[in-house]
Amino acid sequence: MKVVLILFILSPLLCQGQSNSFEHAQQWKLYDVAGHDLFRYSTDTLRNFSFYSLDNDSIHEFVSGVKELPNGDPPVWMGGPLIVTYELEGATYKIDISHYGGFFFDERTKKYYQVATSDIENWNAYFTRCFVAVHGRH
Asked: Residues 96, 107: contact at Cβ < 8 Å?
């Protein structure tokens, strides 16, 4: 009975801690890459490309309200993704961001996520500005 009671009390805390690990991620980077095989680029390969360091506060603002999309119906990609990495617990992970839809695919969790509907326009505008910044360095 004590174990059940302890789990009942702790379960909301445990679930809350796992709800959105993106909020704990740091060192977000947008890479200047183009081509057809962007989904295949590993984090090791990306080290060979120039990047733009994204503002952690801005990204955390956007990802604080992300929702996981259902597995059975992945969103439709239009064009190649924007490639971003982030650091979490000492490891580097990659996400593929849609140019238009306000969604992304996290290669760590193998899941799609959608930013809040009210943030999609600002999310897209932010990444467009950042991509122009990284791409314009050449």
From this structure: yes
Instruction: Read off the tokens for 54.
Output: 């994204």
Q: Which one-letter DSSP state was computed for residue 5? A: H
Residue-number span of the structural domain to which 42 is assigned = 21-135
Summarize pLDDT for 72-131 with one digit per residue, the tens: 888 888 877 899 999 999 999 999 999 888 999 999 999 999 999 999 999 999 998 998
Domain count of the chain? 1
Cβ neighbours around 43 below 10 Å, total: 14
Examine residue 14 and state whether it is found in any structural domain, yes or no.
Answer: no
Other beta carbons within 10 Å of 73: 8
Domain presence at residue 84: yes
Q: Where are the beta strands (DSSP E) in 76-135?
A: 82-88, 91-97, 103-106, 111-114
Tokens, residue 59? 């990204």
The predicted model scores a pTM of 0.80
- Which is nearest to 42 in space by CA: 91, 113, 115? 91
Backbone phi and psi for residue 37, each to the nearest 5 degrees, phi listed first: -105, 30
| Rounded Cα distance, 29 and 130, in Å | 10
